[in-house]
Amino acid sequence: MTNIALVGGGTAGHVMPNLALVKELKKRFDNVIYIGSPKSMEEAICKDKKIPFYPTETTKFHRRKLWKNLSLPVLLFKGAAQAKKILEEQAVSLVFSKGGYAAVPTVISAHLLGIPIVCHESDRSMGLANRFTAVFSERVYTAFPGTYRKAHLMQTPVRDEIFNGKPLDLFPNKERKTLLFMGGSLGAKAINDALSENYAALSDKYNIIHITGKGGAPLKTNSYRSIPFAENIADLFETADLVVSRAGASTLGELTALGKRVLAIPLPKGESRGDQEENAAAYRKLGLISVLPQDALKKDNLADVIDDIITKRPPAPAYDRRTPEFLAEELFSIAKMRHVGV
Fold first, then answer.
1. What is the pTM of this model?
2. 60-97 b/e (C-beta count within 10 Å ≥ 16 → b)
3. Topology of domain 3-158+321-339, per CATH?
4. SS3 for 13?
5. What residues are paired with 224 via a beta bridge?
6. If both were cysteines, with which of 41, 80, 180, 338 could 105 make a disulfide (CB 3.0 to 4.6 Å apart)?
7. Domain boundaries in the chain?
8. Are 81 and 89 within 8 A, CB to CB?
9. DSSP secondary-structure letter at 267?
């Protein structure tokens, strides 16, 4: 039997590309399982999608409060021991990592067990977990050239359902363009605040859908709808004429695959490792998105920037929909070659 374990978690950006592969992986592998953090986003999504999920102890590396990392070796050892048991019991032939701290215990165990590891990096620069994983990987894929030495280029897989969204009838004025504001799976205070400060100017011209993030209250007017979290993100993408978002690689990958107008407000370096600023710069260089740095947000300039972008023609979709098929086939080939001792 040839079985694969998917790992990657912490944010939707690590989980959704894995889910995009499941359909094609099931055509080739006997079993597809997911290993990640207990009571996590990945566990909830896998249960909803009926993907077998196995939890291990995981811990995040703290870049600022270094004293919080003192327990990291103990938790990693515990998580790796749990992962070892899962990998052996499920007879896993290959581990595929999309990064994030949730992947690390399983990568350690797979390496010690001699199970081949493959990783994919969606960001313009490689994250800490994938930098660690890449050292032990049979093959490394990146979405951008130059991200990692000797890497193979492969676009970030996008879920099929993203292409099947249906426009929603949310507002009485059908003639207005619709804006979608979103801050990623964890929300974004800077985007929420900017919308609040520019609300009068924007709501006078546009219909607005606002994904507030956790803690936000649903609100409904003739030109505004707010929700804490979107289950039907494909429908919202289809409804929107322009999306204002952070610059997570998975989100930008989905939006550019659809050919949407995008205004990216990347999480600045200092609040992150700078990956979103690099992602935004790379996509802007390709002519696929517009970018407004967070520190350039002013009380009254967001509406002006949106007014300019909304008049421009949307970019052509920038994605090969055969990507999940290509990547699944390569993963299966690697697993089979190792299985027969090639």
1. 0.90
2. beeeeeeeeeeeeeebbeebbebbbebbeebebbbbbb
3. Rossmann fold (3.40.50)
4. helix
5. 208
6. 80
7. 3-158+321-339, 162-310
8. no
9. P
